[in-house]
């Protein structure tokens, strides 16, 4: 449809063309006598033409009014349409998988325009507009593994933008004054809007994925360890990102293990016997599962673990049953799928994976055929009745030759749910409650007969309603196992839990100490946990899980959840339920920083704004509600609601996942909205919600009411009205149950960025709080310095891979140690921000500074050491600066094998046998002998009175390097001339002092004798001049020093005293230095140091890059 814009003469246009549509800037015409029947216009269908016309109206019409003249409008429209043609061509090429020549062209332009290292891989690119104020700039958006880049050359002006993904704080689709659909990227300093994409849905999806992947890889070490797809970013492609997004949705929708990789997605129809028809939907196949989801949300879902599958067969293709396959499972059920397009390859792949699953996990299948089909026992290898636990349980899975001791330890595991062991008799009305239980059991039994009773059951709206009513006590544990698919893990790992218990019990670590501390806080009001049997089972499950997953170990709230699981499931079953909750159903909740819980709190805030706007308007700071509701998410309401009511919430959670908790939380806030709007403060709001939750009851529960933690809130208050849990759950589904898994996952993407960046801000503020009191650098400058330090670390992660010494960001470490840099990174920063630049010698000084700061010799330094060092350079007193310089030229900063350790002083112009007489500009000479004699006496006195530990003395080789550094520092200084004269004077004086010390060690005489020797030598040739005022000579031919050392030594005090004798040197070291200009320059040039062979011109371009 899109054609290259050309100028057209309008003469006689009305005779030849008929106007179909028109607007202020565009006209849609058809050739007179053509197209009346809705045929093709210029090679395009009428539908496509109308679609593109709508695109013009929505994206361009509102924009053109911002331009000042017609020429700018024409130029902008031409550029935009040309870009759309290129974009459309690229899309077609990608669809047909032809030679990606267009992508190669874009890659060449990307590399030329942004000059990144080769490791910065381009993922994809889009034509779009970037808004600069009220003006859109047409250009190209390049998305690479670490950066978002935009390039535009419009109306003679070039614009480059570069945004590291790791700096993105918010990524959203929104609108502005001119456009209804834009992508907004927010960093700490700017907001940037992009619009007029040909396919904005795809562009946003890829951006969302890239931001998520990069932030997880660089900022969230715990997730990085778990996700192999993030390990090597250079292997990421656009297709990989789309596949990853689809896999994540698949795992979230069916709540499958994180290792499950999605292989095929196929449209099909499934025979649903309960409705006597085929239901349209999609089949998803992965490593270990075949899943089906109907197109109509909630109509029918099926989850089939491959280990349950007996056979997969192709049936005869007919007009009524096109391309059918039959999947038979062990519980004597079969699933018929039809309308599968690529049936042959699909069945072949499924059979291959079925064979792999059966080889790796042989099925223990012996007595299940004995079951009666109308019993409440579930027909699956995975769930078994109590009488069969001897055959299929953990003990039976062990080989018969186990030692007696091992058998005894295995038998210690609870073979029953604690609820059945510690049975509680109900209170008044227990007969009514038991009859209600029996009615529920019959309803479930009828449902199983029609929809299936294994993990492969048809999951429909009907089962959701049954769950919302509350699962019968007798079936609760087994249905939790089915809904979470923990039953498959249980059957796939016979003996695993028993072995874990044996391996973990008796071992002491931080997790076991925390577990012991919390054991007696877990449902202390329940008789099962007032007894050692329940406590011991809880200890074993929690300790075994900490041993299985040391990354999580043990987190508070796991004890409450596990204790409830033990009430309704056998001990081994409770363990696998805990695995399902921690690793699949609540991802990232139970780790060091509870990132997952915080992300969902942030999502919950957004849902409150969307669904309860009046409450959100009243409570300006929704973080209060989020913090109150944190325990709702972490304990699934078990810690803040009576147990007999909370277990109904857990029922919904195991069936619907986190969606059930979101909607119940909204229902609770809505029920209390009026009171919350009148609440005086956060404490009052907390009291309102706590009292409400404390009075949520379950009249149908056969259990007696169990006391809870919040009873004290109602002691001196008016009686709180009672709420029935079934009514509350029903309201939550009716009013707030319309959010899909896909919507929640998209919100999680968005808010994970925000949560991770909040953690980064917290880390930054804590580091600065520690460093600020110890330095004189202004807080705002220190903050910018921290940003440079962190960016330097991240850039090495971008392009240099993970060298062994460069440890990636580890949020589990103390704040000050989370970001550290190595020698090369430090050298780069030193060149950017240090005031002590020494020309070619700068690299060597930087390396010495790094060795000095690396006190623990782990080849990494923290921000505090870096900031303290710069603080001395910029704000230290002269003696502190000289002290730092002195330490840079003695071990460990100066090493024996250093490449620059040889003397740079080639010509023997300076000899310590010559007198201390120097040529002056006015022709006068100055004798330093009296001054030297007095200085030595003063230093001797100072040495006697000084109590602190003296620094090691400097050898002649080290002194030579010290002098070289000083000479290098003075280069290009405005006072260069006088500084060279002064340092020549001081150098000669210190060489004399060192030689005097050398003689003293051999003769054992006092300092007075040596000064007399120096004086007598000086009188022998008082006409010699060592240095003149000729700057060229002092700069180009730096004086040569003897390399034979003997016992030649000099102390810090002697060097400091000598330097203090020269006013020009004092002025140099005490002149005020500004850090801010260096920081501003560093922000512009930090990236440039990482690119190879960058010209001055491209350097200047990069300096403009981030300022526009």
Computed Rg = 39 Å
What's the helical proportion of residues? 40-55%
Query: What is the architecture of the domain at 595-751 at the second tier of CATH?
Result: Orthogonal Bundle
Question: Could you tell me the mean pLDDT?
Answer: 79
- What is the 3D form? globular
CATH topology label of the domain at 595-751 = Cyclin A, domain 1
Number of helices: 44
Strand order of the largest sheet: 6-5-4-3-9-8-7
Q: Major sheet, described briefly?
A: 7 strands, antiparallel
What does this structure look like?
- This protein has 1108 residues and is an alpha+beta fold.
- Among the domains are: 5-88, no CATH class; 94-236, PH-domain like, CATH 2.30.29; 259-358, Roll (PH-domain like), CATH 2.30.29.30; 463-580, Helicase, Ruva Protein, domain 3, CATH 1.10.8; 595-751, Cyclin A, domain 1, CATH 1.10.472.80.
- It has a seven-stranded antiparallel sheet with strand order 6-5-4-3-9-8-7.
- This is TBC1 domain family member 8.
Give a summary of the structure in a few sentences.
It contains 44 helices and 24 strands. The chain has 1108 residues and is α+β, with helices and mostly antiparallel strands.
Give the SSE layout.
Blueprint: H1 13-16, E1 17-22, E2 27-31, H2 46-61, H3 70-96, H4 101-114, E3 122-132, E4 135-144, E5 147-154, E6 157-164, E7 170-174, E8 182-186, E9 191-195, H5 200-219, H6 221-226, H7 238-254, E10 262-272, E11 277-286, E12 289-294, E13 301-305, E14 309-314, E15 325-329, E16 334-338, H8 343-360, H9 389-392, H10 394-397, H11 404-411, H12 418-421, H13 430-451, H14 461-469, H15 473-484, H16 486-492, H17 496-504, H18 510-518, H19 532-548, H20 558-568, H21 571-585, H22 595-611, H23 613-618, H24 623-635, H25 643-656, H26 658-671, H27 673-677, H28 682-694, E17 696-697, E18 723-724, H29 725-736, H30 741-771, H31 779-799, E19 820-821, H32 823-833, H33 842-853, E20 861-862, H34 863-875, H35 878-887, E21 917-919, E22 925-927, H36 929-945, E23 954-955, H37 956-970, H38 976-1003, H39 1007-1020, H40 1031-1036, E24 1049-1050, H41 1052-1059, H42 1063-1070, H43 1076-1085, H44 1096-1105
Parallel strand pairs: 17-18
Antiparallel strand pairs: 1-2, 3-4, 3-9, 4-5, 5-6, 7-8, 8-9, 10-11, 10-16, 11-12, 12-13, 14-15, 15-16, 19-20, 21-22, 23-24
């Amino acid at each position: 449809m899109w054609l290259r814009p050309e100028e057209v003469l309008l003469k006689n246009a009305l005779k030849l063309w008929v106007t179909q549509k028109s607007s202020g800037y565009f006209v849609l015409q058809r050739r007179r006598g053509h197209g009346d029947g809705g045929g093709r216009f210029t090679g395009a269908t009428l539908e496509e033409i109308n679609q593109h016309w709508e695109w013009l109206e929505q994206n361009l019409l509102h924009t053109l009014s911002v331009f000042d003249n017609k020429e700018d409008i024409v130029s902008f429209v031409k550029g935009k349409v040309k870009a759309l043609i290129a974009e459309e061509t690229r899309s077609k090429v990608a669809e047909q998988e032809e030679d990606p020549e267009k992508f190669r062209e874009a890659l060449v332009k990307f590399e030329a325009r942004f000059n990144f290292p080769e490791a910065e891989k381009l993922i994809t690119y889009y034509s779009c507009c970037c808004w600069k104020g009220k003006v859109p700039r047409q250009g190209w958006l390049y998305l690479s593994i670490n950066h978002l880049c935009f390039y535009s050359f419009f109306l003679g002006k070039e614009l480059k933008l570069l945004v590291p993904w790791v700096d993105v704080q918010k990524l959203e689709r929104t609108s502005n004054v001119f456009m209804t659909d834009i992508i907004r990227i927010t960093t700490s300093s700017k907001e940037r809007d992009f619009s007029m994409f040909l396919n904005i849905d795809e562009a946003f999806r890829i951006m969302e994925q890239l931001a998520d992947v990069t932030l997880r890889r660089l900022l969230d070490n715990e997730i990085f360890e778990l996700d192999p797809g993030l390990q090597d970013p250079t292997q990421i492609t656009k297709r990989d990102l789309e596949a990853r997004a689809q896999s994540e949705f698949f795992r979230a929708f069916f709540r499958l293990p994180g290792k499950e990789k999605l292989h095929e997605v196929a449209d099909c129809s499934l025979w649903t016997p309960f409705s006597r028809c085929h239901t349209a939907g999609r089949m998803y196949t992965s490593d270990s599962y075949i899943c089906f989801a109907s197109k109509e949300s909630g109509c029918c879902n099926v989850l089939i673990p491959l280990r349950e599958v007996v056979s997969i067969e192709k049936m005869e293709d007919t007009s009524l049953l096109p391309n059918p396959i039959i999947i038979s499972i062990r519980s004597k059920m079969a699933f018929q799928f039809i309308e599968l397009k690529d049936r042959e390859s699909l069945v072949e792949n499924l059979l291959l994976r079925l064979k792999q699953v059966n080889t790796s996990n042989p099925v223990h299948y012996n007595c299940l055929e004995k079951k009666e089909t109308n019993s409440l026992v579930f027909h699956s290898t995975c769930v078994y009745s109590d009488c069969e636990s001897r055959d299929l349980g953990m003990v039976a899975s062990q080989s018969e030759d186990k030692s007696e001791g091992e058998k005894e330890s295995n038998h210690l595991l609870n073979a029953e749910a604690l609820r059945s062991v510690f049975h509680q008799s109900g209170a008044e009305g227990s007969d009514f409650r038991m009859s209600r239980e029996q009615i529920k059991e019959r309803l479930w039994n009828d449902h199983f007969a029609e929809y299936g009773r294994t993990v492969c059951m048809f999951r429909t709206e009907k089962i959701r309603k049954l769950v919302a009513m509350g699962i019968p006590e007798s079936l609760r544990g087994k249905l939790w196992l089915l809904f979470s698919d923990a039953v498959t893990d249980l059957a796939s790992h016979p003996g695993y839990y028993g072995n874990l218990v044996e391996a973990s019990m008796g071992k002491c670590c931080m997790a076991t100490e925390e577990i012991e501390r919390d054991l007696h806080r877990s449902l202390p009001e329940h008789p099962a946990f007032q007894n050692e049997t329940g406590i011991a089972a809880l200890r074993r499950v929690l300790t075994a899980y900490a041993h299985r997953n040391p990354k999580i170990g043990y987190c508070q709230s796991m004890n409450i959840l596990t204790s409830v699981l033990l009430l309704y499931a056998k001990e081994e079953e409770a363990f696998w339920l805990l695995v399902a909750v921690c690793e699949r159903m609540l991802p990232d909740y139970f780790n060091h920083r509870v990132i997952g819980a915080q992300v969902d709190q942030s999502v919950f805030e957004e849902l409150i704004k969307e669904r309860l706007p009046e409450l959100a308007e009243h409570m300006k700071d929704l973080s209060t509600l989020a913090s109150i509701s944190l325990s709702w998410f972490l304990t699934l309401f078990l810690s803040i609601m009576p147990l007999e009511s909370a277990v109904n919430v857990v029922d919904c959670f195991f069936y619907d996942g986190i969606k059930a908790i979101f909607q119940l939380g909204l229902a609770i806030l809505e029920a209390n909205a009026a009171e919350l709007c009148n609440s005086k403060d956060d404490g009052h709001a907390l009291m309102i919600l706590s009292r409400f939750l404390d009075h949520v009851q379950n009249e149908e529960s056969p259990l007696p009411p169990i006391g809870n933690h919040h009873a004290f809130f109602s002691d001196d208050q008016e009686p709180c009205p009672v709420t029935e849990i079934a009514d509350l759950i029903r309201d939550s589904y009716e009013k707030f149950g319309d959010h899909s898994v896909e919507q929640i996952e998209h919100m999680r993407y968005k808010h994970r960025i925000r949560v991770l960046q909040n953690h980064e801000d917290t880390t930054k503020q804590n580091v600065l709080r520690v460093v600020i009191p110890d330095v004189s650098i202004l807080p705002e400058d220190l903050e910018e310095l921290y940003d440079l330090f962190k960016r330097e670390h991240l850039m090495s992660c971008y392009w240099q891979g993970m060298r062994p010494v460069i440890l990636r960001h580890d949020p589990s470490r103390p704040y000050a140690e989370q970001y550290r840099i190595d020698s090369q990174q430090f050298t780069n920063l030193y060149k950017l921000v240090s005031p002590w630049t020494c020309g070619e010698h700068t690299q060597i000084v930087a390396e010495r500074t790094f060795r000095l700061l690396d006190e623990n010799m782990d080849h990494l330094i923290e921000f505090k050491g870096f900031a303290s060092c710069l603080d001395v350079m910029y704000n230290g007193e002269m003696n502190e600066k000289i002290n730092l310089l002195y330490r840079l030229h003695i071990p460990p900063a100066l090493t024996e094998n250093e490449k620059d350790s040889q003397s740079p002083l080639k010509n023997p112009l300076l000899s310590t046998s010559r007198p201390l007489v120097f040529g002056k500009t006015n022709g006068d000479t100055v004798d330093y002998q009296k001054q030297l004699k007095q200085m030595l006496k003063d230093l001797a006195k100072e040495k006697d009175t000084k109590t602190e530990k003296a620094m090691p003395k400097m050898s002649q080789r080290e002194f030579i390097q010290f002098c070289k550094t000083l000479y290098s520092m003075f280069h290009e200084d405005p006072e260069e001339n006088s500084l060279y004269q002064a340092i020549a004077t001081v150098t000669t004086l210190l060489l004399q002092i060192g030689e005097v010390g050398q003689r003293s060690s051999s003769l054992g005489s006092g300092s007075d004798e040596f000064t007399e020797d120096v004086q007598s030598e000086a009188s022998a040739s008082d006409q010699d001049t060592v240095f003149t005022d000729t700057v060229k000579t002092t700069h180009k031919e730096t004086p040569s020093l003897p390399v034979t050392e003997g016992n030649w030594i000099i102390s810090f005090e002697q060097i400091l005293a000598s330097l203090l004798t020269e006013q020009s040197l004092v002025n140099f070291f005490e002149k005020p230095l500004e850090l801010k200009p260096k920081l501003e320059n560093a922000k512009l040039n930090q990236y440039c140091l990482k690119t190879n062979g960058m010209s001055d011109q491209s350097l200047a371009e990069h300096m403009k890059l981030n300022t526009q």
